Amino acid sequence: MYLTKEQERILEGEKGEALSKMLQLIVKIGEVNGAEKLISVNSAQIAGVSYLTVGDAIFSFFDMINKDNLKVKIPSWLNPAGMDMGRYKEMGIDSLFSKKQIQIIEEYRKLGIKDTLTCTPYLVGHEPKFGEHVAWSESSAVSMANSYFGARTNREGGPSSLASALTGLTAEYGLHLPENRKPEVLIEVDAALESFADFSVLGFWFGENQGGKIPFFRGIKQLSIEKAKSLSAAMAASGSVAMYHVEHFTPEYKKIKKEDLTETIHFTEEEKKAIYERFKEQDNIDLIAIGCPHASKKEIKMIYNVVKSKQKKSDVDIMIFTSRKVLTDIETVSIVKELTKKGIKVYADTCMVVSPVTRQNYRNIITNSSKAVFYLSKNKETNVFLDTLENILRRTLR
Ligand code: F3S
Q1: Which residue, 28, 34, 29, 36, is CA-closest to 4?
Q2: Which of 136, 181, 255, 282 suits 261 as a labelling partner, its CA being 20 to 30 A distant?
Q3: What are phi and psi of 58, to 5 degrees?
Q4: Mutate to test the pocket of ligand 1, among 53, 136, 140 (most ligand atoms within 8 A of CB)
Q5: CA-to-CA dists, residue 25 to 20, 152, 157, 218, 248, angstroms
Q6: Strand 245-246 relative to strand 264-267: parallel, antiparallel, unpaired?
Q7: DSSP characters over 172-225
Q8: Closest ligand 1 atom to Cα of 291
């Protein structure tokens, strides 16, 4: 791989062992993937924040970095943590977990990384620009950056996105190159897609059946940012899909030539129904979990409009997960107050998957996110069901 003189000197340790190790990681990943050079990135979104997922191993990593007092070179933000940083006691987080979680965030802060603690940086003022190279690591955010915004990022791991944050570099391969952003399969969407859950089901179905490929969706009639994030998250979870195109909506769809699309598959009502059927509610629900990816202001308002004239059943908990920026937004604050009065918990900084409380305390969870179903189902003691937000709320409100 071609390296500039400066990059070579960093690798040799001129700027310390830690930065050398960070660059080595990027170069190694680049070599494995056939990159010819390194390129600059404009931002980094870093996963590997929840103590539930990173454990104590992360502290030796921080020790290594801290030796050289490194700071990030580009705007960098964190993915959700394992708890609401202001209300972890109320969530029932134990004191060891909260102590470690606070420590992890403090370590990231020392490096100059912003504690946005969200998987939706694009909803809190960090929308990537068309064509810009970034190094993001949360899988739904990666897919949104590539597909909805037309930015360019591979699906980075926590350590590699941190390495990019500290060096301002990534290896040029994969989705950074235009030739790798072409679709491989045409999906004719014959089924009606209305709710966020419908988009999530489409994504889940595609990822499960055609994982790893880039789809071109035709027949989608509208694509709001909320619908796109549902689609992105589900596809990334079930099939590691990091990019897609939607005719008339995503910014690169016009570049697609007919001859690129050699295979056509139909997504019909039958496929849609089959996924809902598979995850159909079967037991008495004890938790409704909304906000995977983190809920937008619009979603929180939508929920409020449905619940404002109704009462929550006492045997069901309702949790909405969002970013702190959305939670404290002037338009959201009063709505959240009303939701809280109704017994609905709106938490920031965390989510149903990366926080330990959902799995520890609930056995029958329903959500409108296929990604949440995918990950929560990995715990064999938890039953997880999927439905549209409207159906879920209708059944659990009086
Ligand atoms: Fe975000 Fe957690 Fe879902 S990080 S995409 S809300 S699993």
Answers
A1: 36
A2: 136
A3: -65, -25
A4: 140
A5: 9, 20, 11, 39, 38
A6: unpaired
A7: --GGGSGGGSS-SEEEEE-S---SHHHHHHHHHHHHHHHTTSPEEEE------H
A8: 6
Alpha-carbon torsion, ordered 150, 152, 156, 160, to 10 deg: -140
Tokens of 163: 């390495």
Q: What is the pLDDT of residues 129-175, one digit of tens each?
A: 999 999 999 999 999 999 999 999 999 999 999 999 999 999 999 99
- Please list, in sequence order, all residues whose beta carbon lies within 8 angstroms of the beta carbon of residue 12, skipping any fewer than 6 positions away: 20
Are 396 and 316 in contact by the 8 Å Cβ rule? The answer is: yes
Q: How confident is the model at residue 396, as a pLDDT?
A: 83
Q: Whose C-alpha lies nearest to ligand 1, atom 3? A: 292
- Give mean pLDDT, residues 177-188: 96
Protein residue with its CA nearest to atom 5 in ligand 1: 293
Mean pLDDT of 81-102: 97
Q: Is the CB of 371 under 6 A from ligand 1?
A: yes
Find out whether the peptide bond into 293 is cis, omega within 30 degrees of 0. yes
Give phi and psi for 24, each to the nearest 5. -55, -40
Give the Å distance between the CA of 56 and the centre of ligand 1. 21
pLDDT in tens, 249-301: 999 999 998 888 989 999 999 999 999 999 998 878 999 999 999 999 999 99
Ligand 1 centre to CA of 294 (Å) is 6
75 CB neighbour count, 10 Å cutoff: 16
Q: Is the CB of 21 under 6 A from ligand 1?
A: no
Structure tokens at 36: 């010819």
Exposure string of 373-396, with b = 16+ CB inside 10 Å and e = fewer, is bbbbeeeeebbbbbbbbebbbeeb
Looking at the CA of residue 80, tell me the nearest atom of ligand 1.
Answer: 4
Answer for the pair 233, 203: CB distance below 8 angstroms, yes or no.
yes
Residue with tokens 């940083």: 85
Looking at residue 397, what is its pLDDT? 87
CB atoms inside a 10 Å sphere around CB 272: 20
Q: Which atom of ligand 1 is nearest to the CA of 120?
A: 1
pTM: 0.97
Q: Is the C-beta atom of 49 inside 6 A of ligand 1?
A: no
